[in-house]
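Q: Start with the shorter request: fold the first protein.
A: Done. Sequence, then structure:
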Amino acid sequence: MFFSKQMVSRESSLQGRTEPLEIDKFHYINQMPMRPPFEEGSELIILAMGCFWGAERRFWQQKGVSVTAAVYVGGYTPNPTYEEACSGLTGHTEGVMVVYNPTTTNLNRLLKVFWESHDPTQGMRQGNDVGTQYRSGVYCKNKEQLQIALDSKSAAQRLLKARGYGSITTDVELVSDYYYAEGYHQQYLAKNPNGYCGLRGTGIQCEG
């Protein structure tokens, strides 16, 4: 399979499809609904930190998180398949939709987990996983989240610099569209406990 390290343009991206990919109705871990509407008062953010299998597990383990899902985000192609996303021709990265209760946790705590659980300085890769579909990203749903994420990025950059790392390459931006990955990707490491997980942190300790 070809792994591109160059972002595709919208004009050159794949057409995709109007119908979403099939997934189970309920979360494998806690039986919460996988699609909106979510619990009243919940907030949603999408975090990308390499292969979404390990990343999703990291977040479903967090207190205050009610729903997680493997998604494609940050690109152009509607409802892409895994093969299409891996081709680099959709512009998407592998992300995790995180639905959380702001009375139980907050975005800074989730971003602490995010920055500490991967290396956000690697560009279009994460460890041995190479390609635009593995780039780091924080995809926000509103301007308040965006400002929190940008402040968090600046704080993480200072910690990384002190350890000799380079500049953070993480996308931090507003996004309106994201697309669920195929059903077999959802809660993959709960269904396959010995499956692949490439998460590797840098050793930084963020405030949260």
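Q: Next, the second protein, separately.
A: Sequence, then structure:
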Amino acid sequence: MKRDELRTPCYVVQEAKIRENLEILRGICEDTGCRILLAQKAFSMYSLYPLIGEYLDGATASGLYEARLGHEEMGKENHIFSPAYREDEMDEILTYCDHIIFNSPAQLRKYREKVKRAGRSMGLRINPECSTQEGHAIYDPCAPFSRLGTTEEKFRSGMSEEDIASLDGLHFHTLCEQNADDLAKTLDAVEAKFGDVLHKMKWLNFGGGHHITRADYDRELLKECIFRMKEKYGLEIYLEPGEAVALNAGLLITEVLEIAENGMEIAILDTSAACHMPDVLEMPYRPPLKNAGEPGDSRKPYVYRLAGPTCLAGDVIGDYSFEVPLQRGSRLEFQDMAIYTMVKNNTFNGMKLPDIVLEKSDGTCVAVRAFGYEDFKSRL
């Protein structure tokens, strides 16, 4: 099957682009000796886990189900972090994960003996209180009153020598779609606040948010950051990118259902921002669209507001310009739609979930999963 034959809406994940990203990530591992894990929260298309496992060292989870998925479908190193763990899930988590990262001294003490008996590696998430983001406070773990990670003050007042001795490593995650200069700045803060503790650790986890596979990412500076912590403190270094694995490796193909007019032309699509690309509303951002431009582009004089078919008045993807008018049945391709789409979509209004399709390196498309009424009903 070819792309233009696919039923819409559908996510199309491009195997060649995934492999290209993985080659870059494996190169970082080979050059520095670091270990890179897939952050499943961004991309959990487990039919590709065998491929990803050929290049990366394992996966990381944010909860029980992701932990089980990584264990069952990749079967390599399996890490987990949660702001707070449920007591009735910890035994099962310990069967899946080899690294358990806690958010606070209290959580560490609560589960320490159980984790030690299971022979798992223990870590603590720290908050270096170093904000490097602009405009996206919802994604800033170092924002005021953040619940994520232990600050230096809480570490010094809340951690006993026994607590520190039980740790194998520290973890921080402060970035979101950022370059290596922000990592270097964050490491300055980590060293200033926790440098004396790092000498006692076996590993340091840089977390995620590193756009390593982006064209303008400074990979040489990333390597310098890794060597800096390895050589100074004798640490094994982990990174947990999610977006970098599937960056620019997916499409969301949709069709125009109707053209409306209310002060401007409005194209109603068979895909929804609210249901199928929630970050468009949550971040918010304007997703790239093949062969379209910004309003006001003289080369593309036909401007449309692209919107979804739900009852939500704000189910709007954005305003785009085109060289030729859109028609009912016109097909559009949103780009960079592998990340934070399948993992966050929903069936509000009874919306059908898009099919999941893998586009092989030879251009043929293979259906991975189709969804129907029972998928909607079973959630309720």
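Q: Describe the second briefly.
A: The chain has two domains: 3-11+250-337+345-378, 33-246. The first helix runs from residue 15 to 32.
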